[in-house]
Design brief:
The chain is mainly α and about 100 residues long. It has three helices and no strands. It has helices spanning about 5-20, 25-30, 35-90.
């Protein structure tokens, strides 16, 4: 048996719980009752909910990454312009005051 995706496992668990519920009379003899089936279904549903929330968060993270990249681009452009201006206005010995340690 090879690797199973989470979706495959969840699908198999859904089939399992339906079959357990259909065969509950026989399963009770082995200690599997309605409460056990309900617990398994509840846990499965929680995983499905968490996966959905995770996908939403991944999407939001991608959006934030784009925002960061765009804003950082704007910031770098502004800083580059002001650095050029400082280099033209001040001698190299005065650049350090502005945090510029470049050499000509």
């Amino acid at each position: 048996m090879g690797y199973q995706t989470q979706g495959e496992v969840l699908s198999q668990i859904e089939v399992l719980t339906k079959a357990l519920r259909s065969n509950l009379v026989k399963m009770k003899a082995r200690g599997i009752d309605e409460a056990f089936v309900v617990d398994v279904e509840t846990l499965r549903n929680q995983v499905v909910t968490f996966e959905s929330e995770q996908e939403t968060l991944k999407s939001r993270l991608k959006e934030k990454t784009v925002q960061i990249d765009e804003t950082m681009g704007e910031l770098k452009a502004k800083v580059s312009d002001v650095r050029k201006l400082i280099k033209m206005m001040y001698p190299q010995t005065g650049w350090k005051e502005f945090g510029i340690s470049d050499v000509k």
